[in-house]
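Fig. S4 source data, part A: sequence.
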Amino acid sequence: MKKIFTLIMTAAVAFTGCKYDDGDLWDKVDDLDSRLKTLEQTVGQMNTEVTSLQTLLKAIDSGSFITDFSALNGGNGYVLTLSNGETLEIYHGTAAPILGTTEIDGVYYWAYIVDGMASPLEDGSGNYLPVSGTTPVLSIDDAGYWMVDYGSGEEYITDGAGNYIMAKGGESMFELVENGYYYVTFHMADGTVFRLPKMSTAEFVIDARKREHFKYESTRTFGITMQGVSSASVTDRPDFWTTSLELDPNGETGTISVTAPGQALVSLFPAAAGGTITVTVNGHDGTLLVKLNVYADDRDYGLACLTFEDDDYNGSWESTDGRGYWTSLIDSPQYGGPLLYGDYSNVDYHWYDERNTELASELVTSWGSTVFWNGGIALSDYHLSDITQGGFDTQLSIVDATGFDNSVNFSVATGYPDGYPTAPGTLPGIYFKDGKERVVDHMYVTSTTYFANNVLNGDAYCPALPPTGYVNITAIGFDSAGTPVSAAVQPFEIANGANGPVVDWQPWDLSALGKVHRIEFNMEGSADGYNQYGWARPAYFAFDNVAVRFYDNE
């Protein structure tokens, strides 16, 4: 780094004792010190705006809106609160920014802004850095030159000739913020314009799941309920999809009809296979953006997927503590926590994938109590790769480092009886809360660390799995009357003596059960897994991404 400040101080010491008027020199030192303090403030504001820009683009993509708009203390900017609970801080600037964005094929990337020209930031491998990903951290050196760290260490920002760029002070990524009646419009200093709607008390609900399937060239119509709406229109749709929006004059109901493109068009233009339909709704006091995700193929049914991720939740539940629906269901500690055990008698732990797969679950009641050790399915994001440390107190941990497909959340099931079929509710299970029967197509399964440790090393209740041993997870389906269905699926072998436990995510095809109202799971295996009390291995396994078939006429 350049150490100009240090060099000036050295010069001042060298002249000590001489008849030398060092007032001008100290004035320059004071000026530099004051300038660096001003630049430090600018850097702090710029880094805040980097985070704010990421939050703004995420809000636009998710359909969030602004619930509050006010000036910052000191009048040098604004603070905005979003409907998802996040906030934006935006500052006024007097000079062009050093960091901005550039759009390439519909994706925004971080960019240096030098002499009004945007050049994409690159990582160590030469890849562009999307705004939705890495957060660059700006800084200045001791002499006031711009530096940036985007994950691999600080480096100087240079102009086209390779020269370091001096920070001027007062830089801002946001040039102008317009607080309109329906929207707040953000004019970026690099020329980009973003717009986010303001909160409206209007309601506009499309009776659809989070992602709807269409057979090629088919048309589907969805009902709408609304209140306080003055007008609405479809403002975005995937290429070659057509829509028709009809609102009743009374302002309370309506329909939206959607037609998918043909297979020939999708073959020529793969992006036309699906995307997002956006309806802009003008209320009497603001605007809403309502989105419907659609896709098309040649099947008679589509797949809705239960991922246990907060971003995929499509129900009516709202958090009071800032956490998403699924994350709020993760207990702490893993064993004995308040959500799954409470006072070790009866807890009301349940979940419902509303307006998506319609799957639900709750804990099993046994021996007069309802707690997790009696059986049930719990949410988790716990990981423990050291299998030797797996035990009952790490019951929600898996060996794999992530949920399926690098996700965060997954679920853990526990419970067994010796021998089944059984009456519904005896085993951990999933069911359709709306009472219908559907085909559960598949899910992904892996071992918990507790189970894996038992298989490899044994415990006081049963030995390690021998070379000829095996452990299976079995599934039984029930119809809406509670009668076991006659069809069966291949058990999922979660461990065997030759290969040990499954420690990565593997698919399990459940479609052979056919249409069911409920599926319950049991664990069983070779004789070494039993003792005088019955099944003795930890009856825990993890699953994720449960896919359910939905036919277009449902």
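Fig. S4 source data, part B ends here. DSSP finds four helices and 40 strands in the chain.
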